[in-house]
Structures are given as structure tokens and as C-alpha cells.
Amino acid sequence: MMDAAERQGGSEEYFGYLDRAMKMILDAGLAVELDMHPDSDLKARLANDNEFVERFADFWRMVAQHYSSSSWDSERMFFEILNEPEMRDPYRWYGVETKLAAAIRQGASANTILAPGAKWDDDDDMIFLEPLRDPNVIYVFHFYEPHIFTHQGATWGANYWHWLKGLHYPSSPENAAQVATLLPDEVHRLDVIRYGQDHWDAARIEAEINQAAEWGKRNGVPLVCNEFGVFLNADPQDRTAWIKDTRSALERHNIGWAMWDYSGSFGVVTKKNGKNTLDDETVKALGLRAP
Questions:
Q1: DSSP state of 273
Q2: Measured between alpha carbons, how far apart are the two ends of the chain, in Å?
Q3: Which domains, from first to last, does the chain contain?
């Protein structure tokens, strides 16, 4: 859309598409989280190019202003600054995020801003942040720990994940040692063995979530985990056990949550005979009831 905004009439054309999507969601009685969801190249420019940060801030200001008019419900429209930043320098990210949040607020005085940490929205990156000087901010994080379990079989991210199969949750040394034999190199075999020795279970997930909750309490700010989930390649029982343990830990700390995703490779529904079909065990793990 940034490119479209620089063309004659480009903004109007793009907002036409986006407005229709927004209206459809709001008319269904849902809230909208509008985030910037760029590729890694754009994120890299934010890390290195101050002039581009200024351009991106101008763009956010324009988008926020468009959706701050009285025709849109500010109570149900949230602006997330950036999906999964990829900035290794957390100090740099804090400066960039502060500038982008200020631009959003200049465009929209009433909407809630969602603010992530520096690198991939991880919970440990979020707790490095100093809260923004804005009282209407919710701090967001994603939770997929440990990735070696939640992303086993995935063909993106760490290359060795695609070798992993049958890695159980809760973790055990015996199972991990067996799965480690599937990997061709010693370094990643050791990663798998460590997963088994680390005893990942409900208590370990609780300890991870607790650090985020304590940060929120210390700073007096609300949190939401707006992504968590397990790739469908995992054993179904292990997958739903992890989902239940994570969801339960979030709820114990009054942290809002959203599972990733609906009908994709982490989905709560699967395709059967060309139709989306709810997975009853996943629904149960989320503490919900199928209609």
C-alpha cells in the first residue's frame, strides 16, 4: 500500500478494498486488529534506514487518520505497529516503535495501539521494552515455545525443523534421543536432546508466561498473546496438550489470547470433503464449545 499511496489515486483504490474488508468484519460484530505485516526486506530497512522510518511513520499516520473518522468504531479497531519485527538491536527498535506509535496517535487520538517487542514478537523481547508514553497501549507477544516442538516438520525457519517427526510433548529424554537420530548433524541432534532434558510441560510453559505477566504487573500495562499454536505435523494428542497448557497459563494471568490460525497449517479447522470442519479436540483444548 505504501507504493500505491505514491501513485495518483492509489490510496483511494487501496482503501476501497480495505474498507470493504473492515466493514464486513465490524458488521459481523467482531473487532479488527489492523497491523502492518510486511516481508523481511521492509523490516530490514526499518533497522538501517532512518529516512525510510520517516516514510513509514507518514504512512501509518495516513492510515490511522483514515480510520479515525466518526464512521469507524474506534472501540473495536486496534492498530498493531508491526507484525514480528526482525530487529536484533532492541534499543533501535524502541526508538523506531516510539516514533511509529507517535505517528499513529497523531492520526488517531482514540484507538488502542498494540506494541510488540524487537524480534519476532517473542515474550522475552517484549519484557525488554520500556512502556511507551501513551496510556492507551496493549503490549503483544507471540508464543511458540519451544519452536523445536511447535514447528517440527515445518519447511521454513530453521532448516533442520523439516527433519523432525514424532517429537512429543511433554518432553522426555527417551523420546528426544530417538528423534535426534533422524537429524544428519550433531549440533541439531544436541538441540533435540536438550529439548528432552529440559522437561517441557505445563509447569515450564507457566514459567515462561509468568515472566511476561510479571512485566505487565510491574509496569501496570495490559498484555495479549495474539499468536500461539502448533504446526499440524505434531502428534494430535501432544498438540492439543500444548495448546491447552498454553491457553490455561495465559488465562490464569488474565492475558488475552488468539490462536494461530483458523484453517491453515496451524488451524482449528481442517478440510474434509472440501469443507472446513472444526477439530473437536482443538476446540476443547481452547476451552471452547463447538456450535
A1: T
A2: 37
A3: 1-123 (3.20.20.80)
pLDDT in tens, 36-90: 999 999 999 999 999 999 999 999 999 999 999 888 999 999 999 999 999 999 9
Q: Which residues pair with 80 in a beta bridge?
A: 35, 114
Query: At 19, which amino acid appears?
Result: D
Which long-range contacts does 54-60 make (Cβ < 8 Å, 24+ apart)? 55/2, 56/2, 56/100, 57/99, 57/100, 57/102, 57/103, 58/103, 59/1, 59/2, 59/5, 60/36, 60/100, 60/103, 60/104, 60/107
The whole-angstrom separation of Cα 38 and Cα 35 is 9
Angle subtended by helix axes 202-219 and 236-252, to nearest 10:
30
DSSP structure class, residue 75: G
Taking phi over 0 as left and psi of -120 to 50 as alpha, with beta for the rest, 121 belongs to left
Report whether 138 contacts 223 (CB < 8 A). yes
